Structures are given as C-alpha cells and as structure tokens.
Amino acid sequence: MFLSCISYVRLVLLPWEYSPEIADPFDIYDGRRLGELWRGQSFRAGSTIQMIQQNDAVLRGSGARIDAEGQAAWPLIIARIQANDAKGMEDLYHVFSRGVRFFIWRQLGRQDLDDTVHDTFLTVAEAIRRGEVREPDRLMGFVWTVVRRHLAAEIERTVHQRNRRAELQGEICSRDRAADPEWRAIVRQRQSVARGLLNQVSGRDREVLIRFYLREQTQEQICRDMDLTPTQFRLLKSRAKARLELLGRRKLARRRIFW
Amino acid sequence: MGEEQTHHPEDSEIEQYSLGVLAAEDIPGFEQHLLICHECQDRVAQMDAEIQGMQAAARELRAKQPHRGTGYCG
Q1: Fold of A180-251
Q2: What is the spatial distance between Cα A118 and Cα A10, in angstroms, rounded to a whole number?
Q3: B57 in contact with chain A, both atoms CB, cutoff 8 A
Q4: Residue A174 vs residue A27, higher pLDDT
Q5: Domain map (residue ranges) of chain A
Q6: Which of A92-96, A149-153, A178-182, B64-68 has the lowest mean pLDDT?
Q7: Which residues does chain B have within 8 Å of residue A184's beta carbon, measured at their own beta carbons?
C-alpha cells in the first residue's frame, strides 16, 4: 500500500505540478481531487477505484465498439495523454482497465487486485507521457508487455515471500485465484457437473476426457494411443461438451463470473 | 509483441489457452485481443472454471478407482 502511494505521487501528482495549463487536473478522477484521495484512509476506498468499478458497467456494454474502433483510437489517446489532456487518461482507463483487471485476477486472484491494476495503469500512462510508445497503433501490444512484466514481478515476489515464510514459520501463503472463496465455489459447482458426466459416459469416452483434461495429453497423442481418428476424437469431445452443458443446465443456472 | 488479433478466437483456442497449451507464438495476439474484448474475457473465465471442475472431478475419480486399468495413470 505504501509503495502504491509513493508511485501514485511520483507518477501522477508530480507531473501535474508542472502543468499549469490544466485548470484542475485532479478533476479527472471522478470529480474528486487526488489530494483528497491522498489524505483519505486508503486507496481501496478512493474514487479512482470507484471509477474502475463504475466504468466496468459501461465497458461491458461497449466492448464491441472498442473492438471495432479501438485500433484507430490509440494514437488519439496517446496524443491526449502526452498533452496532459485528462480525457486521454480517462479513455485509456475505459479501454483497458477491465482487461488488465482480468489478467491480474486470473493469475494472482483478488488480493491487492485494485492496487495492482492501478499501478499498472500508472506505469502505462507514465510511459506514454515519456514518449516510450514507439508504435501508437499498437498500444495494446505495449500495454500487454507492461502487464506481463508486472505479473512476472508479482509472481516472483510471491514465490520469494512464500519461500521465506516456509523457512521461518513453516507456513505457506497462497496468492492466486485458487485462494478466492468465490472462485472455489464456482469450480466446485463445475466439478459436481463434471462428476455427473464422467459417471455417465462409457469407459473409453471417460478415458479420452481424463487424458485430455487431467493428463493434458495432446489430441495427436490420444488418437495414437487409443487408435482414434481426429474426427472420432472431435466427435467424442463435442458429445461430451454437449452433455456437460445439458447436465450443467439441469443442475445449476450458469453462474456469472466477476473479477 | 505480436499482432493483436482482430477476430474472436475459436472455442478450441480458448480451451488451449485455458489448459496452458496454446502455441507460444499465438499467445501475444490472443492476449492482446483479450485485453480489450469483454466477451472473450468471459469465455476464458467460463472455460477456466469448466476445465478446473473437470480436472478436479477426474482427480477425484482417479483417487477412488486407482487400479481399474482404464489406461490412465497420470
């Protein structure tokens, strides 16, 4: 948290000290001043985080529009950010915050999720300001690289902390999606449906599914070992999927997954 | 960095990605598409849940019937 605050000041507050052309740059963040955020209890309760959540609803409805027009919009977003135009920061957040959140949630779970998304956003924004995005048309490639680096650093830090804890206290601290109770409940539901499927199918079909999903054997390997043609393999899998879908519909309403 | 995919990936690609077996050269384009496509983010999340559920059920079955000679031993 402390490091988040430091990076916030370094990357956001300081550059704007030298931007007298912006009447109130702090208005970017949901009409509230960053100064208020800074004095607030925590970033988690801050308006930036609220903005992510509010924007999320907007983004869910506007995905297709961003898909279709996104590439053409990147140079404009970059130009605005470099000109210290608040709209550029806002657009950048609109476009990628949900996707970045998804990636980080998928790898690291919910712990410190908002802070990590926020730090990633600031890293990208600062890099854009410094003119480090050499191909504006491929902004998402740049964002992807930053997210990947953040994730690698976080995972390395978690592994290091885990090893240290194990050495000192014999405790293992999990920091990934598996530690999220909501995610575990979703997987348990799916497990129950899959159990029903595995109990219904023939021994041979079951073996194919187990080889593919549990042992992660390739289609080629399974076909070779079990004397199946690729068409037979595909048919078997699509039949199993259809049955899984049917069982799932009977057993539970499809649960929406949030991150 | 790879080229951002402009089309939605097939279910088989989503499945490969969830299983962690998508070809390394396809990952950058796939993930850059995922960054901005909400529909595909949902598809990956659902696929992750299905695969993890299937793996847990298969593991459970294997633990219950370890010596039935079904040909799997992983």
Answers
A1: Arc Repressor Mutant, subunit A (1.10.10)
A2: 13
A3: yes
A4: A174
A5: 2-165, 180-251
A6: B64-68
A7: none
